[in-house]
Design a protein that fits this description.
Length: 450
C-alpha cells in the first residue's frame, strides 16, 4: 500500500500526518495530501544555474543583460524592456483573461527574429491554429507541440533548440519520476525546477503559464514563485475589454510596473494612454468626482475617484471599491476632527473608476475632496486634480515623484492642482496652477474658493 504524506503548498515541507499548521513555515491550512515518492537512483537535484568557482564580488563581470522586444510595448514595459536569454517568467490570471492570446501574439512577433516553441498542455494543435487564424497571425515560424510529459518536452527542447519557449500551463505537466497526479505540489515543483534548469543552462527565455486559485493567488506551491525570475499577474474583469498586466517580482527590472491592454477582435492591443480608461467622460463637472494622479510602478496614471454621500439610517454604511475600507473610515474621522465636516449620520460610498485598485496613501486627499464635494452638492472645477497623503493630525504629507505626477496632469490638459507643500514645483508647470497645502483645512478652503 502506498504511503501517504502531507506537503505544504507554501514552503514544500512535509508531514506524515495532517496538521492545521505547517511545522516548517507556520502557515495554516496549507497541507495537501499526496503519495510519498519512492527513492530513485537518478539524481534530479542539480543546481538551477551552472556551478562556478568562488570569486570576489568586485571581480565578477556584471554587464547589462541584453533584451529582445516582444513586439508588445506594454508587455515590454512590464518585463523591463523585453525578454532576457535564460530568464524564466511566470504569468498567472483568471481563466479566459487572455494569457494564451497575449503569449501567442508575442510568439508570432518573436518568430521573425529567433526560433520559438509553444508547448500546450490544455489545447490541441488544431485549437491553437484556429485561435491564430482568428487573431490574424501568420504563424509561419511558430513551432507548436501538444504535450504534458516533462521528459518528452525536455527532449523536444533539446531537438528544437528554441530561443523563446512558452509552457501553457505548468499545472498540466507531469514527470515520470513522480507518481503523483499532474497539478500536485510535488509535480509542479519538480517540473518548474527542471524547466528552469534547462532555461538557465541553454539560454532559452521561457514563460510558464500558471493557474490561479479562487482567491486569485497562483495555484501550487509558493516555491514556484521563488524559482522563477519574473512573476506577472494578469488582472481585469472578463466583462470589460481592458486588462492589466502587473509585475510582482522581476529580477531584471522594476516591480509593480503595469501594462494596459484592450481586448479586440484581433487580440490584445496595448493602450498608449491608459489614463483615458480611468476617467469618466462627463459633459459637465459633477459633484463627488475628483481626479487623482496615482503612480503604478514608474508610470503616473490619472484615475477618477467618485464619492456619494447620502442620508443614512441608524447605522450608516461605509463602502469603498478599489480603495481600503479601513482607510476610508480613518479619513472620515480626520475630516470630522480637523475640518469640521461630519458624515456620522450619512452613508458614504467611494469608487475608483475603471476597476483599478489603489493601494498608495497618496489617494487620501482626492478621496476627502470628492466626499466634501458630494456632501455639499457642488462639483469641483473642470480640469482639477489632487494627490497627497493625509495623516491623523490633519497634515497633508508629500507623495513620491510629485513632479512627474504634475507633468502628466499638465500633459493631459488639467489646469488646477492641489498638492502637498513639499511637492510644490520649484519652477511653474506650463498650463497648470498649483495650490500647495500643509493641512486638510487649507485644501478644503482653497477648493471652496475655486
Amino acid at each position: 500500500m502506498a504511503k501517504t504524506i502531507y506537503t505544504c503548498r507554501e514552503c514544500g515541507g512535509t508531514s506524515p500526518k495532517w496538521l492545521g499548521k505547517c511545522p516548517a513555515c507556520g502557515a495554516w491550512n496549507s497541507l495537501d495530501e499526496g503519495l510519498a515518492e519512492a527513492a530513485t537512483k537518478n539524481n534530479r537535484f542539480q543546481a538551477l544555474a551552472r556551478s562556478q568557482p568562488v570569486a570576489t564580488l568586485a571581480d565578477i563581470d556584471a554587464a547589462e543583460v541584453a533584451r529582445t522586444p516582444t513586439g508588445q510595448e506594454e508587455l515590454d514595459r512590464v518585463l523591463g524592456g523585453g525578454i532576457v536569454a535564460g530568464g524564466v517568467t511566470l504569468i498567472g490570471g483568471d481563466p479566459g483573461i487572455g494569457k494564451s492570446t497575449l503569449l501567442l501574439q508575442a510568439l508570432d512577433a518573436l518568430s521573425a527574429v529567433m526560433p520559438v516553441l509553444y508547448v500546450t498542455g490544455e489545447e490541441s494543435g488544431a485549437q491553437v491554429a484556429l485561435r491564430a487564424r482568428r487573431l490574424g497571425l501568420a504563424g509561419a515560424k511558430v513551432r507548436v507541440v501538444a504535450e504534458i510529459s516533462l521528459e518528452k518536452i525536455l527532449a523536444t527542447l533539446e531537438t528544437e533548440q528554441p530561443a523563446f519557449c512558452v509552457i501553457d500551463s505548468i499545472q498540466t505537466l507531469y514527470s515520470d519520476q513522480l507518481t503523483s497526479a499532474p497539478g500536485s505540489v510535488a509535480q509542479v515543483r519538480e517540473c518548474a525546477a527542471q524547466l528552469t534548469r534547462v532555461a538557465k543552462t541553454g539560454g532559452c527565455a521561457m514563460v510558464l503559464v500558471g493557474h490561479v486559485t479562487k482567491e486569485g493567488a497562483l495555484a501550487g506551491p509558493r516555491v514556484l514563485e521563488h524559482i522563477v525570475d519574473t512573476v506577472l499577474y494578469f488582472e481585469g474583469d472578463t466583462h470589460s475589454s481592458f486588462r492589466l498586466v502587473r509585475a510582482i517580482k522581476n529580477r531584471f527590472g522594476a516591480v509593480n510596473e503595469i501594462g494596459v491592454f484592450a481586448m479586440t477582435e484581433k487580440g490584445l492591443r496595448g493602450v498608449s494612454n491608459p489614463s483615458a480608461i480611468f476617467l469618466s467622460a462627463h459633459g459637465e463637472p459633477v459633484s463627488g468626482s475628483c481626479v487623482l494622479v496615482t503612480l503604478e510602478g514608474t508610470r503616473p496614471l490619472l484615475v477618477e475617484i467618485q464619492a456619494l454621500v447620502d442620508s443614512g439610517g441608524a447605522s450608516p454604511r461605509r463602502l469603498s471599491v478599489g480603495l481600503d475600507r479601513d482607510r476610508l473610515a480613518m479619513l472620515l474621522a480626520v475630516l470630522h476632527r480637523h475640518a469640521g465636516v461630519s458624515c456620522m449620520d450619512q452613508d458614504v460610498f467611494v469608487n475608483a473608476v475603471g476597476g483599478v485598485r489603489i493601494a498608495e496613501p497618496a489617494a487620501d486627499l482626492a478621496v476627502l475632496l470628492s466626499i466634501t464635494s458630494s456632501l455639499r452638492g457642488k462639483p469641483l472645477p473642470r480640469g482639477f486634480v489632487a494627490f497627497g497623503e493625509v495623516g491623523l493630525a490633519g497634515e497633508v504629507r508629500p507623495a513620491p515623484r510629485g513632479q512627474e505626477r504634475l507633468k502628466e496632469a499638465a500633459k493631459l490638459g488639467f489646469s488646477v492642482a492641489v498638492v502637498p507643500k513639499a511637492n510644490a514645483p520649484k519652477k511653474p508647470v506650463e498650463g497648470l496652477t498649483v495650490h500647495a497645502v500643509e493641512r486638510i483645512e487649507q485644501a478644503i478652503d482653497i477648493v471652496r474658493g475655486l
